[in-house]
Amino acid sequence: MKKYRKDFPILKRKINGKRLVYLDSAATSQKPIQVINAIANFYKTFNANIHRSIHTLGEEATKAYEEAREAVASFINAEHKEEVIFVRNTTEALNIAAFGLRNIVKGKLLLTEMEHHSNLLPWQQLAKLKHLELDFISFDKDGYLDEPEEKLKGASVLAITQASNVLGTINPIKKITEKAKEYGTIVVVDGAQSVPHMPVDVQKLGIDMLAFSAHKMLGPTGIGVLYAKKELLEKMEPVMFGSEMIKEVSFTEATWNELPYKFEYGTPHIAGAVGFKAAIDYLQEVGMRNVRKHDERITTYALKRLKNIVSIIGPKKAEDRSGLIAFTMGDIHPHDIATILNEEGIAIRSGHHCAMPLHRKLGIQASARASFYLYTIKEDVDALVEGLKKVREVFER
Amino acid sequence: MKKYRKDFPILKRKINGKRLVYLDSAATSQKPIQVINAIANFYKTFNANIHRSIHTLGEEATKAYEEAREAVASFINAEHKEEVIFVRNTTEALNIAAFGLRNIVKGKLLLTEMEHHSNLLPWQQLAKLKHLELDFISFDKDGYLDEPEEKLKGASVLAITQASNVLGTINPIKKITEKAKEYGTIVVVDGAQSVPHMPVDVQKLGIDMLAFSAHKMLGPTGIGVLYAKKELLEKMEPVMFGSEMIKEVSFTEATWNELPYKFEYGTPHIAGAVGFKAAIDYLQEVGMRNVRKHDERITTYALKRLKNIVSIIGPKKAEDRSGLIAFTMGDIHPHDIATILNEEGIAIRSGHHCAMPLHRKLGIQASARASFYLYTIKEDVDALVEGLKKVREVFER
Amino acid sequence: MSDIYSEIILNHWKSPRNRGKIDDADVVIKDSNPLCGDEITMYMKFDDDKIKQVSFEGKGCAISQASASMLTEFVKGKSIDEIIKMNSNKVQKMLGVKLSATRLKCALLPLKSLKLGIYSYLGKKLAG
Amino acid sequence: MSDIYSEIILNHWKSPRNRGKIDDADVVIKDSNPLCGDEITMYMKFDDDKIKQVSFEGKGCAISQASASMLTEFVKGKSIDEIIKMNSNKVQKMLGVKLSATRLKCALLPLKSLKLGIYSYLGKKLAG
Ligand SMILES: Cc1ncc(COP(=O)(O)O)c(C=O)c1O
Ligand SMILES: Cc1ncc(COP(=O)(O)O)c(C=O)c1O
């Protein structure tokens, strides 16, 4: 997808005199000029606060904000546009999911051992608050999830990532939601690493709630989405209070506005929604099938080239993985790998990637991670391989 | 301050063939090109996720994010930069203030009758959660707050706006915090309408917590601030959980990171922080004393010109008011006023301005509001006056 | 003078038709527009599947008040089916002006309340 | 080859000095860098206001490990006052390289832990 690279101004940067090789898209993606310009254009020509607003700028801003909601709804094939709640990021979406369910959850909360802290901590806290049991679906030595079957019994919620940000594993969500339905379990999916990288159809996959962030899918920072089925949102309680989200307020009482406003508090990130829509338009132009195909191609190539220099974490087959590879290099600490690679202009991530318990289970403290997106080219992988050879040389001299 | 107008691209717009007369800055301010460019420049040259990040882009983004925090801290004269928590907006700041205090509050929660829903609902909900009494300081017919003295007794928190978004009243915060200290009451100040418009020094004013939004002070949407004294933040509990805000996590337990990260969950609005800093730089270049002086001058002029055509809400003296004027026009509904003004290119707000109980107390259902900022000129007020004459003609023909 | 505040709208605003209570109404329904605070209460009397009598009370802008006034005139004697089929286009045509999205919400509040009232009536009938 | 991974840093990383437990330590302190997960445990024995013996255990990157190794060598026999006055510049000078902000945090973790340990010792002494 080389032809898209020209749309990303940052890719022209030099780092330490070298070409920037950006392999950290799982942390945040780069942005095409179309998104950057959409945001600037909002501020330059129709910036205003939304809703309740009668003047032309306010009407235009409101329209753009609601069009962004429609774009998101159609991107994930939500049945109703009011099932799309704009939030700050995936983390906030998962908190609103958890605490919004506070009067509904009972029995046990089921998670997996491969969750990001953002899909672990809200449920830990909810379990404490409501005195509920926490249970975990484990994964095997290749990074595949074990069968959830018996654990689903008595679980009011299953919180699960669609694609692991460390193992890379893509979980079989459809199979899991089908089983969960038999047990009446609400399935909350962390889509932070999946929605940006593959077609995700909430209706086909039978997903009850889905969380994701714009900044990982070519969009701006500060905006993300909580999708939830309408029936669920109607039963859920708001978590933050104020402004737009009310219908009637007296000094001592308040009633909530209709969906989706019940869950959107204060002035929203309007420019963010406008930029987010531009990002979705861009991704749809490219085609999510093509994005996925490209990820798979690059991952296949990278797995092949890396397998003899590093220890790769997670599944061996690219088709079961999203576009990222976490790895270790014997004694050499991932931070040191990242530092030396940076001297070569290569940006990777190192650390626990907000998945401490997962790393502990793997028996390691940290890992290095290279992650890809539609602008990643084979030459980036080649540069990584050369960089890793340098790392070895430094530490083995 | 005419000379600053050229920095605001949107002011060149025509609405219905007329010059845009933007009198809705209390809802959201317009943005100078310096802010718009700072955001674009971030995405074009050093966009990356922050913290834990070892590569150059990550280091640069982290530095910019933390410099924004320092800029905010110095703008409000916070003692420590980690007393500045980046949040989504004022509303979120006030929710984190309220629910963050959930293990500290007792006795009663004291508010005023002039609070915006965002500084009312979180405390209503907290009161419900902790079975606490809610009490309110009333205001007189001119919009001045009554003496809080006896009400402070037994109040663990006083939540109060520094400038009312409807009455315009500027409350005597210093006098109030001094009294509150005698009773050991924590003072939480809604600075949404004050921080953008006048010098606010948290130490001099003795403020314990302060909330405000970037979008009302030339900055981007999607970012705001909760300031709180360090001792307080240390005692407070986080409200949202995940990512950056932890120190150690196991499957079942977590401990919190140091300040300010304990309260910042998930990937922050990094571009927002960068734009926010540019806005603060701009305001400091203008000088907050000058911003206030200009507001006062325009308000004086507007009060004089409007007083014979409309019924003005709030104090008569411009020196006691922030730069906004809410008003009614007999039988004519504020929405109809706004619609007719919009035909003349004039943008005002109409409705309850997220202050339903306040309006009910005033015996009205809604009001119209014109609000000013550093780019507002006398000619804008003149246009408003002419527009209001047209409103009368329409409804009296 | 103003495109939106036509003679006819101002006339209905100044002299609203069917304003007031119906003491023995079959359905009384109160609704509000959370985006602006406009409130309306609709009183309805039915004659099997027809609206026999309808009136309204409430506070609001000229658009919502004129819309309520015109709507109550229009629907009197009409069948339930006919009213349920009414949409936003029909209301705009009735008012005779082109409204922006926000103001359209004001104009639609009376119809929305009327429909809510009809559904509540149907529900009650079904329940016996 | 690499500006940061100098001979001396790699030497300390490969053969860390003062690594291991001190069984009868006056203070044992465990700390971690939440931003990266590096962990360190410091063992200290005091001789009135001097550090008599010091050792460390823990996992971490070459920078934090080399820093711990060099630091423990450096502070042995030094007075508490002297150590408390050590700052980030001093650590960078000790390491002999220029570090970016993030990596500097790795380098400073051992000093931070050492200071925490000293304060805890002083606290205990005060409490009698
Ligand atoms: C006094 C006051 N408080 C709070 C808010 C809420 O601000 P935000 O919508 O940015 O959360 C506003 C702005 O509408 C306000 O005027
Ligand atoms: C799987 C997963 N979940 C959640 C998150 C959190 O996303 P955000 O930081 O945008 O809230 C991330 C990204 O770091 C992730 O990879």
Description of the molecule:
Chain A is an alpha/beta fold. Helix content of chain A is 37%, strand content 17%. In chain A, α1 packs antiparallel against α8, α2 (56-75) crosses α8 and α9 runs parallel beside α12 (378-396). The two termini of chain A are 39 Å apart. The mean pLDDT of chain A is 96. Chain C is of the alpha+beta class and 128 residues long. Chain C has helices spanning 7-14, 62-75, 80-84, 88-95, 101-126, and strands at 27-32, 39-47, 50-57. In chain C, a hairpin with a 2-residue loop joins β2 (39-47) and β3. Chains in contact: A-B, A-C, A-D, B-C, B-D. At the A-B interface, α1, α2, α3, α4 and β11 of A face α1, α2, α3, α4 and β11 of B. The structure holds pyridoxal-5'-phosphate (2 copies).
Order of helices and strands of chain C: HEEEHHHH
Shape annotation of chain C: globular
SS-based structural class of chain C?
alpha+beta
Report how far the terminal alpha carbons of chain C are from each other: 53 Å
Uncertain stretches of 5 or more adjacent residues of chain A? none
In CATH, the architecture of chain C is Alpha-Beta Complex
Number of helices of chain A: 12
**Beta-strand residue percentage of chain A:** 15-25%
Q: Class of chain C, according to the CATH hierarchy?
A: Alpha Beta
Quick check: average pLDDT of chain A?
A: 96
In quaternary terms, these chains amount to heterotetramer
Characterize the biggest β-sheet of chain C. 3 strands, antiparallel
Average of pLDDT of chain C: 92
Q: What fraction strand of chain C? A: 15-25%
Q: Percent helix among the residues of chain C?
A: 40-55%
Architecture of the largest domain in chain A in CATH?
A: 3-Layer(aba) Sandwich
Radius of gyration of chain C equals 14 Å
Q: What is the overall number of helices of chain C?
A: 5
